[in-house]
Amino acid sequence: MEDKRINIIGAGLAGCECAHILSKNNIKVRLYEMKPKYKSEAHKSNNFAELVCSNSLKSELLTNACGLLKKEMEILDSLFIKAAYMSKIPAGQALAVDRDKFSDIITNEIKNDKNIEIIYEQIDDLSKLDGITVVATGPLTSSNLLDNIMKLIGNEGLYFYDAAAPIVEADSIDMNIAYSMDRYGDLGGDYLNLPMNKEQYLAFYKSLVNAESAPRHDFDKLVLFEGCMPIEEMAKRGENTLLFGPLKPVGLDNPKTGEKNYAVVQLRAENENKTLYNLVGFQTSLKFGEQKRVFSMIPGLENASFVRYGVMHKNSYINGGKLLDNNFCLKSNNNIYFAGQISGVEGYVESAASGMMVAYSIVARLKNKKITFPDTTMLGSLSKYISTESKNFQPMNANFGILKPLDKKIKDKKQKYSMLSQIAISDIKDFKENVLDK
User: 6-162+314-436 belongs to which homologous superfamily?
Assistant: First the structure.
């Protein structure tokens, strides 16, 4: 019989949510937290579940991917969602919270839970813990533990900086402009190409170099390398720099016009269904609003729906697609699970959601079962994404592009998202009743 006392490292959003769900199922937990003795560069409070950079938990609308994710979590008895509504402050259609009150609610709930033993200790060696361990240490995991994880998963499994390009929905790309071709290759390759003439390029270039960058926290400051240079910084080196870099037109002559292009933006499929595309080489530090404004100037992206904007910040996460199964369990060691941003999810709500999924997976395991969250739900789609191997694995937040597509094509985006949400809510209720509660 397995030791049913589960170790959780980190009392952040994922760790607290995981501990709460395990406790509700009468499973004892040892929750290890390094605060208040040690703090990362980002943390100020001694409380658990600290919201570091924002108090917004995004939209409440079910036609918004994060709104749907929160609804699914609410159905599955999330402490995160309970605390959010108890600490809610006015913010229109967004769910914004009083950060201190939110953290207080979760901290008090965890501290008063008789099934949860809190141990104020910094863990730097996973082998010292017996039984099942959940690593929920966040994107600023301590260097000693990172070194230990590196030894466990190998040098290629851990990333230290999140230099991610924007991702757009395939349905929002103007396919009258785009064409499919690999460089120097045949039509129908792995890339979509968006051609620019000189006038279009120069207008885009001028807007790019004058766009406003996002402010950066001290703990987010990077030493930039050539391989991950923000596109706006690259552009500032000269008007033609991008034409020899990510916008290089060579080998991508336009088959629709027979003409050579002045510049070409390449998009790479982000998932197997090709419902999402990544702007190749467009890692950026621009403000999100500026990204929308400037990148929508690219021919074919005038009406693009951005499911993720580009980011460049200090982050530690594992290559989930290579290392984890769809229960967030390490393939090479089934006693170790990862939850939160270190697992490859991105965002507050997503981090808590991953902790919830890990907890329910462990509950099932202790009943000698293995569960798979439905890929028609946002929870299931996130777990599928982080466990699907990719050459260019990036952290992912909730978005409709990762959901299992509808059987029929619907042009109206709001109607499409509404239908996807209805299916997801129905399926998560059915999953709870017929799988989790059994």
Answer: FAD/NAD(P)-binding domain (3.50.50.60)
